[in-house]
Amino acid sequence: MSRDVIVLVPQMPDVAAVTRALEALGPDLLVDAAGDAGLTRICAPSGRPLLVIEEPIMVAVPGEVARLLDVEVAGRVSTPVWWLELRASGPDTVDLVYRFADAVVEHLGGTHWPPR
């Protein structure tokens, strides 16, 4: 079972934010950005995909976050906001996806959904 986590941040995730988030995952993981366009995969040393990071999208329409997620989450951010979608590949990778999300939010502000 996979788990999707949406990170909502006030500015486009930059190299520093992504680097800090990757560092939060640990030194043994591999980064594969050569796959599908707009996707970055974080893999185990064996090559098994653990986490997929989609290219960030700007959400500029007021009310869109509330429509897509919920009103409570929308109340924690203002538009425009950057939407970064993360996907954990299985139940054993849920902690990994939240560590990445927490690190991005810590660096840039914002929030993520759903909560742990």
What share of residues is helical?
Answer: 25-40%
Quaternary state of this entry equals single chain
- Class inferred from helices and paired strands: alpha+beta
The number of domains is: 1
At the first level of CATH, the class is Alpha Beta
CATH topology: Alpha-Beta Plaits
Residue stretches low in confidence (pLDDT < 50, at least 5 long) are none
> Can you tell me the CATH architecture?
2-Layer Sandwich
Strand content range: 25-35%
Residue-averaged pLDDT, rounded?
92
Largest sheet: 7 strands, antiparallel
The helix/strand series, from N terminus to C terminus, equals EHEEEEHHEHE
End-to-end Cα distance, whole Å, is 16 Å
What is the tally of helical segments?
4
The dominant shape is globular
Radius of gyration: 14 Å
Provide an overview of this structure.
This protein has helices spanning 15-25, 64-68, 71-74, 94-108, and strands at residues 3-9, 30-32, 39-43, 49-54, 57-59, 81-88, 111-113. Strand 3 (39-43) and strand 4 form a beta hairpin. The protein is α+β, with helices and mostly antiparallel strands. The chain is globular and about 45 Å long. It has a single domain, classed as 2-Layer Sandwich (Alpha-Beta Plaits), CATH 3.30.70. Strands 1, 2, 3, 4, 5, 6 and 7 form a seven-stranded antiparallel beta sheet that branches. The model has no long low-confidence stretch (mean pLDDT 92). The protein starts with a strand and ends with a strand. It has four helices and seven strands, in the order βαββββααβαβ.
